């Protein structure tokens, strides 16, 4: 990623609108980024507002060749197509992801299921799956009450890093505000320092 104008996709997933540390830290990260980068476009997707779950009709539509899909199938995939397009258009994806019961919020998992689509965001080859979302970077802003982020009981951030890599986004950074129920001041201070240290362009 260079110093050209960038498109940012912000994804919020906390169930809390007020008092969410994840949302506040994501705000702070983007405010800091505005001082470092030329932001062309910011798209905000709050998945806590609701994301459709994948069901049988969705699966049948998704695995039907595009040219053979019925109007009803196209309609069933329309929202997924929009979410995928937001991801494809972004240079930087910023995901606010609190740790819920050691994993990601259900709404964020539902978003992943909508955008992880064979032939759109990844493809299968003779040597295995290949991600199709190239030349992108992602930042995960994660807060937790009792889970140490990055520990062996954190199934949220490693999962997100893996999914993003599966889709072709391998440049992923995690900003951590963990164990806030134990020492909120230290957790928030750590995240804010990581925000200050973030560099849009990594050293070669």
Question: Quick summary of this structure?
Answer:
This protein has 204 residues and is an alpha/beta fold. The chain has helices at residues 21-36, 56-62, 71-89, 106-115, 157-166, 180-197; strands at residues 6-12, 39-46, 92-96, 122-125, 128-131, 137-143, 171-177.
What does this structure look like?
α1 runs parallel beside α6. By secondary structure, the chain is α/β, with parallel strands linked by helices. The chain contains 6 helices and 7 strands, in the order βαβααβαβββαβα. The protein has helices at 21-36, 56-62, 71-89, 106-115, 157-166, 180-197, and strands at residues 6-12, 39-46, 92-96, 122-125, 128-131, 137-143, 171-177.
Which SSEs are present, and which pair or pack?
Elements: E1 6-12, H1 21-36, E2 39-46, H2 56-62, H3 71-89, E3 92-96, H4 106-115, E4 122-125, E5 128-131, E6 137-143, H5 157-166, E7 171-177, H6 180-197
Parallel strand pairs: 1-2, 1-3, 3-6, 6-7
Antiparallel strand pairs: 4-5
Helix pairs in contact: 1-6, 2-3
List segments where confidence is low: pLDDT < 50 over at least 5 consecutive residues.
Answer: none
Shape verdict: globular
Largest sheet: 5 strands, parallel
Give the strand order of the largest sheet, numbering strands 1, 2, ... along the chain. Answer: 2-1-3-6-7
DSSP strand (E) fraction?
15-25%
List how many beta strands DSSP finds.
Answer: 7
The percent of residues in helical segments reads 25-40%
Tally of helical runs? 6
The assigned structural class equals alpha/beta
pLDDT averaged residue by residue: 94
Order of helices and strands: EHEHHEHEEEHEH
Q: N- to C-terminal separation?
A: 12 Å
Query: What's the gyration radius in Å?
Result: 17 Å
């Amino acid at each position: 990623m260079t110093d050209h104008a960038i498109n940012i996709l912000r994804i919020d997933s906390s169930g809390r609108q007020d008092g969410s540390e994840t949302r506040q830290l994501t705000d702070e990260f983007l405010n800091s980024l505005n001082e470092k980068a030329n932001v062309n476009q910011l798209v905000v997707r709050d998945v806590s507002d609701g994301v459709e779950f994948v069901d049988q009709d969705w699966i049948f539509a998704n695995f039907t060749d595009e040219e053979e899909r019925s109007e009803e199938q196209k309609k069933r995939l329309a929202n997924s197509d929009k979410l995928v397009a937001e991801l494809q258009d972004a240079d930087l994806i910023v995901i606010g992801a609190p740790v819920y019961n050691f994993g990601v919020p259900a709404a964020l998992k539902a978003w992943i299921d909508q955008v992880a689509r064979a032939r759109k965001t990844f493809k299968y080859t003779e040597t295995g799956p290949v991600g199709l979302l190239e030349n992108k970077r992602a930042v995960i802003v994660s807060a937790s009450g009792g889970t140490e982020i990055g520990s062996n009981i954190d199934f949220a951030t490693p999962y997100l890093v893996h999914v993003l890599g599966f889709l072709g986004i391998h440049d992923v950074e995690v900003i951590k505000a963990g164990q806030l129920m134990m020492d909120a001041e230290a957790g928030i201070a750590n995240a804010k320092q990581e925000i200050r240290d973030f560099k849009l362009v990594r050293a070669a």
